[in-house]
Amino acid sequence: xxxxxxxxxxxxxxxxxxxxxxxxxxxxxxxxxxxxxxxxxxxxxxxxxxxxxxxxxxxxxxxxxxxxxxxxxxxxxxxxxxxxxxxxxxxxxxxxxxxxxxxxxxxxxxxxxxxxxxxxxxxxxxxxxxxxxxxxxxxxxxxxxxxxxxxxxxxxxxxxxxxxxxxxxxxxxxxxxxxxxxxxxxxxxxxxxxxxxxxxxxxxxxxxxxxxxxxxxxxxxxxxxxxxxxxxxxxxxxxxxxxxxxxxxxxxxxxxxxxxxxxxxxxxxxxxxxxxxxxxxxxxxxxxxxxxxxxxxxxxxxxxxxxxxxxxxxxxxxxxxxxxxxxxxxxxxxxxxxxxxxxxxxxxxxxxxxxxxxxxxxxxxxxxxxxxxxxxxxxxxxxxxxxxxxxxxxxxxxxxxxxxxxxxxxxxxxxxxxxxxxxxxxxxxxxxxxxxxxxxxxxxxxxxxxxxxxxxxxxxxxxxxxxxxxxxxxxxxxxxxxxxxxxxxxxxxxxxxxxxxxxxxxxxxxxxxxxxxxxxx
Amino acid sequence: xxxxxxxxxxxxxxxxxxxxxxxxxxxxxxxxxxxxxxxxxxxxxxxxxxxxxxxxxxxxxxxxxxxxxxxxxxxxxxxxxxxxxxxxxxxxxxxxxxxxxxxxxxxxxxxxxxxxxxxxxxxxxxxxxxxxxxxxxxxxxxxxxxxxxxxxxxxxxxxxxxxxxxxxxxxxxxxxxxxxxxxxxxxxxxxxxxxxxxxxxxxxxxxxxxxxxxxxx
Lengths: 521, 217
Ligand code: HEM
Prior knowledge:
The structure holds 2 protein chains of 2 kinds.
Chain A: H1 2-15, H2 40-48, H3 54-58, H4 62-65, E1 68-69, E2 76-77, H5 94-97, H6 123-126, E3 147-149, E4 152-154, H7 159-163, H8 171-178, H9 216-219, E5 222-223, E6 226-227, H10 255-258, H11 266-269, H12 277-281, E7 292-297, E8 312-314, E9 320-323, E10 327-332, E11 338-342, E12 346-348, E13 359-360, E14 363-365, E15 367-369, E16 379-393, E17 398-399, H13 412-415, H14 418-429, E18 438-447, H15 488-517
Parallel strand pairs in A: 7-16, 14-18
Antiparallel strand pairs in A: 1-2, 3-4, 5-6, 7-10, 8-9, 9-10, 11-16, 12-15, 13-14, 16-17, 16-18
Chain B: E1 2-8, H1 12-36, H2 44-72, H3 84-97, H4 113-138, H5 140-143, H6 149-177, H7 186-193, E2 195-201, H8 202-211
Antiparallel strand pairs in B: 1-2
Helix pairs in contact in B: 1-2, 4-6
Bound molecules: protoporphyrin IX containing FE (HEM).
C-alpha cells in the first residue's frame, strides 16, 4: 500500500517537470549566447560565465575521464584499457572513437583527458534544437567551417542558435552516443537504439510519449554532472528499494521507483529477490525495428572484389553482412536474451591480460559476469550475448590493438593489411606483439535493462517453469526451479506406483467380472 | 430377532466433508502434476493459483474435520481393529469366488479393519506429509534467504511430490474399492445419501426410533 502511494506520488512528480519545474532562465534571452561563435570552445566559455562549476564537475565524471578503478575488484577500467567485441580498442583510432567523448580534441588516449575547462562539450548533452552534431571523425568537434561531405558542400551548424536553445538533456542527446555504440544505430547494446527517441508504448513504457515520456536522466539521475547507473558497477540487487522522496539521488534501478514488492501479487513478489525485473519485463530486445549486431567476425576482413576494390555485401534487410573493413556480421531483431546469475560485478578483459584464465570451452569470454544461485547477492539477469572472432597474439597470449582508422599507410580500414595494422596499434599502445597473429572466438555479455514492455507482454510463468529444454531458464543451475526440475528416480518410482495400482485394480476387477459370470457348477 | 433397516450412517457433515475433500484432492492432484510438468493442460501460473487456493481450503477443511472427529467421538472409527488379515484375504481371494464379506457394518463400526488402517494412514501419514511439505513450499520466500535455500526447495518439492504419488495411489485403490459393494455403485450411493441397510437388534431399533440418535427409514 505504501509502495502504491509512493508510486502515485512519483508519477505525479514525473508528469510535473514539463509544467511546473520549468527553468527560471530563458537561454534565448542571454546576450552571452548571441555569438557569433567561431570555435566550439567559445560556446563553452560563454556557458562557464554563469555555470562556473560545470566544467569542473563534468571533468570529474566518467563521461570525461574514461578512466576508473573498480571499487570492489580493483580492476583499472576505461576504454583505453579494455577490449570489447566490437571495434576492439580506441587506442590509435582516437579521432574516430573520441567523437563520442563529452569534449573537444582528445586526440591521444595515451594522455589523460584534456584539462582545459573550455574543452568540455556542453552542447552535445544540452542542445534541445536537434541541430548540434559532432563530426564522426574529429575527436569530438562539431563541424566548424563549410566542408565537402559526400560530394556536397555542407554548411556548419549555427552554434549561437544552438547555444540559445539549451535545456535539460533529452533522449536524443544521450542517444547521440549511446544509441550508436559499436559504430552504428543499435549495433552494440540491443536495448538502446534510435527507436527509443520516440518509442511506441509497447517498445518502452517509460520513454514512450504514450507512457511516462521519461528522459534517460530521470532514472540515470545526475548529481553534479555525474550520472548514476553503471555497467561497470551494476546494482544487481537493490535492497535499498524506493528512493522516493529522493533520498540518495540515485534512481537507476527499477526498485528506486517501483520498490521491492511491486506486483500486488505475493507469488510474483516472491521472485524479486532472485529474478531481476528486466528478466520478465524485457522479453526480447531490439524490438523497435532497429537490428542489433550479434556476430562480428574480424577474421574475414580485407577481401576485395574482382576489380581489386574492397568488398561490401548487404543482407536482404539492407544491413552489411560483409565489409572488407570489418569482416562478417550478423544482425538480429526481437532477440531473446541470454540469462545469467549476476551480482553486479563484471570482470573485463584488459588489453594486457593473459587469456588462459578467461577461456571457456575454447572461447574467450571478454567480460566475465559474476554471480551464482548460491552467493545470496545475485539475481537472474537478461543479457545480450555478443559473439564474434577477434585478432589476438597466440604467442604472447593477449588480445591486440587493431589500428583501424587514420590517414596513414597502416590503418586497416584503408590498407586492409592486418599485420601492418596490428604492428602499428601495438607500438602505439606501447605493448609487445610477437608478430604472430590469429583470431580467437569471443563472447561478450551486455546487461539488458531498457525497452521495458507493457506488463501484459511480460514473460508468462511457463516461459521458465517448464520442462521444455527451450525454456528460458534451461541453462541455469544450482537451484530448484518448480516445473523445470525433477528428481528422476522419484518420478520413475512414482509413475510406476500409480501405473501399477491402476493396472492392479483393472486386473482385479476383470477377474471379478469373469468369475462372476462363470455359471456355477 | 434382528431387522435390516435403512439407517443414516454418514451424517450430513461427514458427506459434505468427504465429497469436498474428494474434489479438492482431485483438483490438487491435477494442478500439482501440472506444476510438476507431468502434463501441460493448464498454464503454469493458473495451476499454481488454483493449487494454492485449493490447498488452503483443504487445510481449512481438515482442521475443521479434525475438530469434528474429536467432538463427536467419531475418531474412534479409525482405531486399529483386529481381523485385518481376514479382510485382506477376502479382497485378494474370497471376493473373486463370491464369498460374503467377513465384516458386518454396524452403527458403531462403520469401517472394516482394512479401511480403518487405510484411512488412519491417510490422515496421519499421507495427509500431514502433504500439508506439512506444502506449507513449507508455500512459505518458501520466508526462508529463501538461508544458505542453500534454492537447493533445499528441491528436497521439499521431492517430499511433497512423493506424498502426492502416495495420495494418487491411495485414491486409485480407494475408488476401486468402492465398486466392491453389493453392486458396483452401492458404496457411492451410500456416501451420497448417507443411508445404508444395516442389521439392527430390536433394542437398537427401538433406541434409534425413540432417540433419533440416527435417522432411520
Ligand atoms: C494440503 C495442502 C497442500 C499444500 C499447502 C500444497 C502446496 C503446494 C505448493 C506451494 C506447491 C508449489 C507450487 C509452486 O510452484 O509455487 C505445490 C506443488 C505440488 N503439489 Fe501441492 N499442496 C498441497 C496438497 C497437494 C496434494 C493433495 C497433491 C496431490 C495429490 C499435491 C501435489 C503437488 C505436486 C505434484 C506439486 C509439484 C511439485 C513440484 O514438481 O515441484 N499437493 N504444492
